[in-house]
Amino acid sequence: MTAATSQGLSRREALRRSAARLSEGGIAEAAGDARFLILGLLGLETRDLLLDGQKILDADEAEKLDAALARRLSGEPVARILGAWEFWGLPFRLAPETLVPRPDTEILVEAALASVPDRNAPLRCLDLGTGSGCILVALLSELPHAAGIGLDRSEKALRTARHNALANGLGNRAAFAAADWCDPLRGRFDLVVSNPPYIARAVIQQLDRDVRQHDPLAALDGGPDGLDAYRRILAGVRSNGLLAPGGRLLFEIGYDQADPVRALARAAGFTDFGLKQDLAGHDRVLIFGLSSG
Ligand code: GLN
């Protein structure tokens, strides 16, 4: 595709031709991808395409679109091309060091909110392996008097998370710091949440190409059996006494990890407070507390 392919086209025509180009290139969600790319690249809302669809792309816009289509055709996911994605209806910037937020992870946010007796309470939240910060930011957006800390090993992820908290108006209630899981954190938290790396190392090669080639390995690799991060977090939360009385610890898990993660949690002294499934009916979120509350 040459640099000028999309030049001189109206927004609507560019959308039509981009979808056709992606479809011919074997991209399954061609129409949706073309729409997300055009909206994201041109900074438009859906209504700008409907009401202002005749507006002609300028040279710069056409060049950006052509480059983005070439990247999509080579297999790069739309979220990576845009460097941004939506989660919980909020905008998030991404970095190569952060996962693309998944719709499944909204189940974790929902379960965490459902476990809170009073959403107006001054709750303290902790997000372990925060990445883009999407879980913590989504929680704080629903808990008006809560404050939270997001920890991650990656400084670049932390910079992205800080940007996302600020951009969503939560800069004064969210703090981010570098840590190896919860060492050496102290304090008491009402909600401890984590979507840690949980793919067994040997299985990573079998993931979709989009994930395998474009998501950061450190956010996927859960060690030989996929459970390393859960062991570390359970031990750290327990020995540092991070869970407040009545507090809840929530994990995102892989579809086949409910039993082993429950066993690890029980052995670490936690009580089982439930399991949530995702939209596909797979086990996706586990909820734990301390027996006293
Ligand atoms: N759900 C992700 C995937 O299937 C894995 C995310 C993780 O390991 N936390 O690609």
UniProtKB/TrEMBL annotation:
Stretch forming the signal peptide: none
Catalytically driven reaction(s): L-glutaminyl-[peptide chain release factor] + S-adenosyl-L-methionine = N(5)-methyl-L-glutaminyl-[peptide chain release factor] + S-adenosyl-L-homocysteine + H(+)
Keyword Transferase: yes
Domain of life where this protein originates: Bacteria
CDD domains: AdoMet_MTases
UniProt keyword terms in alphabetical order: Methyltransferase, S-adenosyl-L-methionine, Transferase
GO BP annotations, alphabetical order: methylation
Release factor glutamine methyltransferase N-terminal domain residues: 13-83
UniProt-annotated binding residues for S-adenosyl-L-methionine: 129-133, 152, 181, 195
First-tier enzyme category under EC: transferase
Entry annotated with the keyword Nucleotide-binding: no
Residues annotated as binding substrate: 195-198
Annotated ranges, domain Methyltransferase small: 121-201
Pfam families attached to this UniProt entry: MTS (PF05175), PrmC_N (PF17827)
EC number of the protein: 2.1.1.297
InterPro entries reported in the protein's UniProt record: DNA_methylase_N6_adenine_CS, HemK-like, N5-glutamine_MTase, PrmC_N, RF_methyltr_PrmC, SAM-dependent_MTases_sf, Small_mtfrase_dom
Single GO term (MF): peptide chain release factor N(5)-glutamine methyltransferase activity
PANTHER family according to UniProt: HEMK METHYLTRANSFERASE, MTRF1L RELEASE FACTOR GLUTAMINE METHYLTRANSFERASE
UniProt record similarity statement: Belongs to the protein N5-glutamine methyltransferase family. PrmC subfamily.
Function: Methylates the class 1 translation termination release factors RF1/PrfA and RF2/PrfB on the glutamine residue of the universally conserved GGQ motif.
Name the UniProt record assigns to this protein: Release factor glutamine methyltransferase
